[in-house]
Structure formats: structure tokens, C-alpha cells
Here is the input.
Amino acid sequence: MHMTAPEWPDFYFARHGETDWNREQRYQGSKDIPLNRRGQLQADANGVLLREMLERDGVDPASLNWFASPLSRASETMDRMRAAFDVELPPIKHDRRLIEISFGAFEGRLHAEIAREQAAFAPGERDESYWHFRPQDGENYDDVAARLIDFARELTHQAVVVAHGGVLRVLWHLVEGTPRKEVMNWPPPQGVIAHFVGGKMTLHSAENTWDVEVN
Here is the structure.
């Protein structure tokens, strides 16, 4: 499906912090799995990092739009990040189009278990066709791209977005044009902020900043 590329404003994106299912390497998808303690601390640290980035960029946090996936791991990450600010912030818009890709029948199963059954689905081993692979009762990455292109119509203005790893993969492809095969095999980190500016993604963590190099 060919989709018209929207005009993306500059925005700051954070993936939610760790959950027990992340730690156990389970397919999580649209299931509402809460942050674990490590994930809560990652979210707290991300709030401080975001505050420092906005200060450095000369951006007033009250001027931004704040969007989060309604799944608790993302909405709690957003709440914890906002706690780092001591100014009145605009209300959070919880947008269902930011929910993680649904893995359908795979949800709750271990990555390793699925990889044994279907090696081509293992992260790092996926080819171009995985973009269109839809598990039983689930979504494919093209479905997520359609949701995000729809969401982009509301992203008219500089924003903070807190959502999920699969969403970040698709955004990297949509905004920067990074090849699908590359984004599907990239492990999106937790405890970092991706700054999309001028059609490029730069990752920032409390320790360092790096551009994601296309191999």
C-alpha cells in the first residue's frame, strides 16, 4: 500500500520502561502489562533527561503537545516523566493509534519459542516480507504504519510521544525512510529518548547521544 508521506514536525519519543514480559523476552503487543521496578526507574530518569533536552533546545515544555499510548506501561512512563517538571503542563492525550502492534496469538509466548517454530520471525533474522506478516488475530507492521500516518494528522506541532518499541520502529521508517528490513531487526532501547528533527532520528540517553547509522 502506498501512503502519502505526512509532514512530520520535530518531536521527542520515549519507549516505555521495562516490564517483566520484556525481561522474560515475551511477545507483549497489545496486552496491558505494567512496568516493573526497573521500568519505573527508567521512566523517572527519562523525565530528567527530557527536561534537560528541552532546556538545551530552548523549548518551553508547556508549549508542547503530550501524547501517550493508553496501555499502562506507556501511560505510567509518561506520568513519571512529567513528574520531573515543576511547571504546569498541558493535559496528556491518550491515543489508541499509539498502542503497540498486536501480536495476536503470539502474545505471552517467548521470542525463543516462536523463533524455534518459525526462524524467519526471530529479531535479527527478519526479511522484508515480515513487514506484511500478520499473526493469527494480530496486526502487521503495515497496519501500524497506517495508524501512525493517521495519527500524524494530529501531530501538527512539536510534541512528546510515549509509546512502544514497534511504534518507534515504524516511525523511524516513516519519518527517516530507513529500510523496513533494518527497522524490523533493530532492538529499540528502553531508557532513551529519540529526537526526530529535520526528518532524522537521534537517540539520547543520560550517558550519551548517537545517530543510528544505517548499515
The chain has one domain: 13-207. The helical segments are 20-24, 37-57, 72-82, 111-117, 141-152, 165-176, 180-185. The first helix runs from residue 20 to 24.
